[in-house]
Amino acid sequence: MIGTVLTDAYGFLAILSGVILLSITIWTYQYKDEQGALPFILILISSAGWCIFDGLVTFSDTLFLKDTFLALKNAFVFILPAAWVMFAIQFTGKTEYLTKPVKFVVFGGAVFFIGLSITNSFHELYIHPTYLITEPVIQHGTERRPLYWVGYVYAYTLIIGANGLLIRLGLSSGSLHKKQILLLTLGLFAPILANLLSELALFRFYNLTITSLGLGVWGILLAYVFYRHKLFNATPIARERVISGLDDAMIVVDNMGRVTDWNAAAEPLFSQSPDGQHLADIAGDDLLSSLSKVGLSLDTGVNGGPVGDGSGYVNEKANNVPIMVNGEERIYNIRLSVVLNKSGQTQANAIVLRDITELEQKRQDLERQNERLDNFAGVLAHDLRNPIGTAKGYMQLVEKNNDNEFISRVTSAHDRMENMVDDLLILAKQGADVTETRTIRLDEAVNEAWNHVETFDGTLHIDTDQTIQADPSRIANLLENLIRNSYEHAGEETTVCVGEIGDGEGFYFADDGPGIPDENRDRIFDYGYSTNADGTGFGLNIVKEIAEAHGWKISLGDDDEYGAKFEIRF
Length: 570
What we know:
Elements: H1 2-28, H2 37-59, H3 63-92, H4 100-118, H5 120-123, E1 127-133, E2 139-144, H6 146-172, H7 175-199, H8 211-228, H9 239-242, E3 249-254, E4 259-262, H10 279-282, H11 285-293, E5 297-298, E6 306-307, E7 316-325, E8 328-340, E9 346-355, H12 357-383, H13 385-401, H14 407-428, E10 438-441, H15 442-452, E11 459-463, E12 467-470, H16 472-490, E13 495-501, E14 506-511, H17 539-549, E15 553-556, E16 565-569
Parallel strand pairs: 11-13
Antiparallel strand pairs: 1-2, 3-4, 3-9, 5-6, 7-8, 8-9, 10-12, 13-14, 14-16, 15-16
Helix pairs in contact: 1-2, 1-8, 2-3, 2-8, 3-4, 3-6, 6-7, 7-8, 13-14, 15-16, 16-17
């Protein structure tokens, strides 16, 4: 009596396990177009068939029905490992493994053993009935034939191979996929353990196997993985080739806004380990703002997933944006690829961020060089033409009137042309950034520059003994042009002062002249701009170019103590 109750309970639980698996199958079917979903559905169906027919074997009261249901159960037994292999190959993106020999072993073996089990009553090459059991339920005692054990090894070989693919992917994937794969593979040990205990006669339940109960446990775990970890939201695709091998930072975000994968180059962009978290919770405001510029806006509200800006997604967008990384501003080119499923719905967003800081710097340098070339052309076409025309006019007057008073004016025009050529040559050399510097005493550099410029009756005051890192020849050009600028605008008796800003933050250069009018302050560093009719307009532009080539910033200071004051900060 007790045996009957227990076997009936087992049959009920086996059928219940099958029903649970079928329910998950129906639930999963809505994702049938996703990568790996169809083999997964087949896994659920085969597991459900295994459980249901195992339960029906228990409830059958005739040997014919028992043998029929047993044959059908065994058919589903061999569908399961073949479907598991297909799921592993598709889920990991290893479709290159599906060669003709592999297809023959997987599908050919499944068909062979299914046919062998269904037709066993005719040849008994699979299992051989040896005696009749009547209590607690009627059934055959059986002898496992050699082909039975061959099929057993075949099934477990496929399962172990498929698990190897999944585990390999899990070890190299982001946290979310690690959890998915860990739960899938560990959960499979429940039916495997139950089957091994039964087949090796370590645990028998009234001569019945308990594999169905293990499959029921696995089914519940599958439902958890499917629902909680969104199994098919963004399946990994050959990660070690697509993500790990990239020098660029790459982040994969599923349609719930969670980071499902990333590579080492992306880690400095996060405030903490992504670990399957929502991107908006671990990324800085500048990164999120930059992503919104290229079409990916993350909503942490009800849905928590990427939302559009009203214009819809475009499969490829690119933009160059500044992002702070470890306290340093870097320029990234962001490319957003929207991964669509077969139904045209967004499945995931692959974000590739290429650090183009150095490339952008070179581009800006090239633009400045091109701008200088354009300016040079303007000087040659216009500015040099004026003193040349002046010199020609005065020479004609000399020839016509035989008056030598115009000779000095011709000489002055030639001197202005010579100064312009000298300044143009200096400007042409200031395009590249300074790559080699030396430690230089600022007071010594100022004194040397003072001696190289005609300073008339001027006075120099140096109130610093600081040292700076600079290119000697270019810092000399910078100081000489500042000194020359003071005497051109403040007169021959001007006083020049050089001192330190703050605690070594930079230095200032000032004179006691009339200063720079407010209306001219915005243009004072412009190329070719000068308030002196005889000036070339290149001096302060040369100063600005040299400062920026060193990575310094130059600006006009506001100080009532001086006339013009230039501040250079490191």
